[in-house]
Hints:
- It is a single chain.
- This protein has helices at about 10-20, 30-45, 50-65, 70-85.
- The protein has 4 helices and no strands.
- The mean pLDDT is about 90.
- Helix 3 (about 50-65) crosses helix 4.
- By secondary structure, the chain is mostly helical.
Amino acid sequence: xxxxxxxxxALDAWADALRERFDLAQEDLxxxxxxxxxxxxxxxxxxxxxxxxxxxxxxxxxxxxxSPEDTRAAVAAVTALAKGWES
Length: 87
């Protein structure tokens, strides 16, 4: 299996492919918001917690209704938890 690192500029193409495949709007995949969440969790909790936390934020946002506002609120809540985290 080949391990590849996706350069930041390639995220736009990947996001476009996800939007097309799953019929998502531009605002449904806020790249910068999710990357900031991953950074905050990785530095505040642990690196492996970042993808898991992004999944949790998406789950919470979806259960709240799934709007872009719901996504921002879920990300803000997870980020706040990570910034105050002490293991």
